[in-house]
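Summary for the funding panel

The consortium committed to producing paired sequence-structure records for every protein in the target list. Below we show the first two records in order, beginning with the earlier of the two.
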Amino acid sequence: MPKTLVAYFSAAGTTRRVARAVADAAGADLVEIAPATPYTVADLNWRDGSSRSTLEGKDPAARPELASAPGDLSGYDTILLGFPIWWYVAPRIVDTWVEAANLAGKRVVTWATSGGSAMGGTTAELKKLAPEATWVDGRVLRGTADAASWVSSL
């Protein structure tokens, strides 16, 4: 029977709440993409040109270190990959995870949380990092209620 994993990165807790709702709606396992060095409030200040998230966002080669490796994904057919949108792309920690995970043959469906940004070219950018996966454009989820209706549409 096909098995689904919800893998997510959450800097401030918003994406974590939605990820739990997505996992519940999908009957999926849940795993957090955690940075080795957690983001502070100052790190997330997008108005500060020298904040950690701003500097990482400006550097496509930035690869923040993971707290732990992605683990064995061989038992999963589908990965529902969630994250907040930062400057119309996934945070660089997601890039780190995608490059470290073995996504060959997996169907990866992206989804995001955002206060106002759209997905932009996020999925296309992630696909460059793991072209052996089948990438599916997801959407921005505006809350936990949005999660259940989105999962039922997949």
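The next record, for a separate protein in the list, is shown here:
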Amino acid sequence: MTWLWTSEDMIAAMAGRPFGSLPAGITGISIDSRSIKPGEAFFAIRGDRVDGHDYAGQAMANGASLLVVSEGRLPAMGRLTVPKIVVEDVLVALAKLGVAARARTEAKIIAVTGSVGKTTTKEMLRHVLAPSGKVHASVASYNNHWGVPLTLARMPEDSDFGVFEVGMNHPDEIRPLVKMIEPHVAIITTIAPAHLGNFNSLEEIAAAKAEIFEGLVPGGDAILNRDNDQFAFLEREAQARGVQNIHSFGQHAKADFRLAEFNGSEENSTLWLTLGGETMEIAIGAPGRHIAENALAVLGAVTLVDADLDLAIEALATLQPEKGRGKRHRLAIGNGYFTLIDESYNANPTSMRAAISLLSAGSEGKGRRIAVLGDMLEMGEHAQKVHADLSGPILATGIEHVWLAGPEMAALRDSLPESVHVEYRETTAELAAFALKAVAAGDILMVKSSLGTGFGKIVAALLDKFPAFSDTEPHS
């Protein structure tokens, strides 16, 4: 049996005390009693809404071999016969275990942050590093004060590469997380107006992202977007923190990993990368210039962690967009099909523009190109302006059909001219009901919104009603 952790090592790392007869070790770590697997340890974390201790019984019923619980809740755990490690604070104990995981591995570690593209870049790194060795990476968007330590604690000792996403919506959030991660390479994808309600300027956002430099190991590398207006600021911030190896990516003539040319289509794209004076043609299995730009940073990181660049480039050709982040579906309707582009996971002004550009490039079918847009959250006092400003890219790209929902999207509705066919509904549910009736063969729908608006329900409703289209089906 290969253990992720022995019980003895867990106790030592977390400064816990055993309660009951502990197993020799555990095969995994979970904080969700519903999805825990037999042989795993359940960490009873107390969150903002629920307390994991209340679900310890369910975790036990689902096969947990070990519970990690707090001293204060132990009396209430008495009837649970599963062995336990008792600690003062479960989240703090998880963080300690994460630090121990980082200390015991010889893996090359990459940390990714940025206003846009963190998860996509992280998944791209997972995909292209896999041919070079054993890769451990964050699940979904586990990038916060519990997601990062959980991902660290789950990292097997024999990992060759570790890839961590680091998020924030306030200052001083990245700093403690990256000091746990201790990356060899830190990537900042870009600085854009996300979480504007919590910051006064883009430079404040850049300063918060620059906290990632504080965790770099001595001699580590930073990779920055040379095309971004905050590049010079971030470069100075990196230098001020003692980072000596600063690299850049983008179309800029001085970028170390330079985009010489880009050619995109609905399904995939091709970029030409100039690296060390040599230009390489690279196929990517996902569409969008923004994907290609982040691929530059990814390939840069591949070279810096001594992975196989040729294998990484080969792997990019089989890259697929993630659910909620550009995943495409062809769905049968009548005698034909329509195309659904699922961008429902998150949205800010920059990612909205990228998605609108991606939709405008679609030529598949003879129907309408329809932008199905919902509110961008956490924009604060800037909300009305940033929503209204989306009229610019919509008009510039020639999109003539816009379906909107949410209170903030009323500003975009009011800013669009009569030449654009606008459908506006107050709620996501109302827009979903409209979309199910209004979609037609040949249409390309792009669904984009912040996660909290629930626009994923529109995608789910469409996927539920319309089956996947097959070219082998009879159609006229």
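Regarding this second record: The chain has 16 helices and 22 strands. The radius of gyration is 24 Å.
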